[in-house]
Amino acid sequence: MMRQEMKGKVVLVTGANGGLGRFVTQAFLNVAATVIGSSRKIRQEEFEAANFTALPADLSSREGAKALLDEVLIRFGVLDVLVHTVGGFAGGQSVADTDDATFQRMLNTNLNSVFHIVRATLPALRRSGSGRILAIGSRAATEPGAGVGAYSASKAAMLSLMRTVAVENQDAGVTANVILPGTMDTPANRFAIPNADFSKWVQPSNVASLVLWLASDAAKEITGAAIPVYGNA
């Protein structure tokens, strides 16, 4: 059923070759969607599927995001789904000890990149008539802890932005939702926290399945949601 529904849908996945992005990209490829995978460095051969197209892009500016969207429209004419998986983490410092560079880096990575790509893609998603925007937030957006002030603030701001997008574009059938995972079982996280109990972490494949469902017609009445996926931690 999902394969029939998604076949031919044009899906843009940012951070497509990242720890979560790989699972999201593959999930859409498996249901015959036309998938454009983007990141700063990505190669066509990273996904062995005829329905995959690699488009490197830098989302740190309005111009970079617009250039990516323009290329998508030149090649495919439409855009139905945007899945934004780009993000970064910095922690270990109190707010009082957080330096300006770290705070700005978290804003650039976790908030500004969303702003640039959502602003660029919204006209096309509105024309779709059933556009879907999915962004990956963090549990820290709603449950901040000590030592992650810059990170949690950037994710909280992103969540607020996405909820505004949901309200502003509901008239065009566009939904905008944010998934809030706990610690995900990715190679980068295993390297950073080698002594953790990985069995309690969130599996990226499960997050990818949720993304796929939220992009479907079955989820058309869900918008502006912040969906917790915390695992067993």
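Next protein, fold it too.
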Amino acid sequence: MHSNSLSVLARRASRWLGACAMAGAAASAAAAYPDHPITLVVTYPPGGTLDIVARLIGPRLSTALGQPVIIENKGGAGGMIGGAYVAKAAPDGYTLMIDASNHGQNPALHSKMNFDTLRDFAPVSLLLRVPNILVVTPSYPVKTVADLIKAAQNPDGPRVYFASSGPGSAQHLAGELFNFLAHTHMQHVAYKGGGPAMVDVMAGQVPVMFASMGSSWTHVRSGKLRAIASGGTERSPSAPDLPTIAESGVPGYSSYEWNGVFVPTGTPPAIINQLSQALAKVLKDPQVAKQLADMGAEVVGSTPAELDTFRRAEIEKWKKVVEEAHLQLD
């Protein structure tokens, strides 16, 4: 055999042995996982819904995995600061990210990001969904979705305004989705946070809001807000008498604020599956399920593949809405 052929065979054998060694090392690491503390990065500041969920599941995830789970908040820029941090982390299963619905909305809203949502993150589990609900000032004459559509389509009537926690927020996009599907022309009013927006809706300064059920349902129960319809695909177990927007005359409408767990791309599949199964176990804890239900959340606990399908659909949906509304945040 010629020396050149021998050289080629030697190089191929070396590459094969190297690949085997890397696969063996990855398998060994996955088999030993976890053997030291895990960091769960929260992409929003302390005190918000995402932070509350992280601190609810963190201790139980620690018990399920047998290692401490450290909560680390890296909030700002609609989740993109935390996202950029996790995208650069080692893909070893020791840095997790709990993200919100902005995960599927930011790619539509921003042309320049420090990471690629689909390329840089591997999905682990969709934890929960909280439907946005259409609420109005109690004195506002709108009583149904049909009433709102009529008011917001009337060229001779007063302009209909809706409030949100800020440009590009989940509440903002929920309203723009309504405009898109119902062919209405409501005007967005942006606030610096969901709290101030809701205060003004309760006071009648702005009559309409597509608010998270978790933050608004207490005010609905107290009579400070009136709920018109839910943004879920089905009626919420927490409010079975509240119709959905879709069944009330806007087919296809669906708007949730959701929380999911992701890891850096390249994390071994065995570790991803272990994390997904551990999270499913945590979500079945009766105390966890009750606390999430009290927040208006629908517990999901998906597989990695199911979360991947879900987030891709979210990205495509919000791209269409953003294009229709001519929104761009950079």
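About the second fold: DSSP finds twelve helices and ten strands in the chain.
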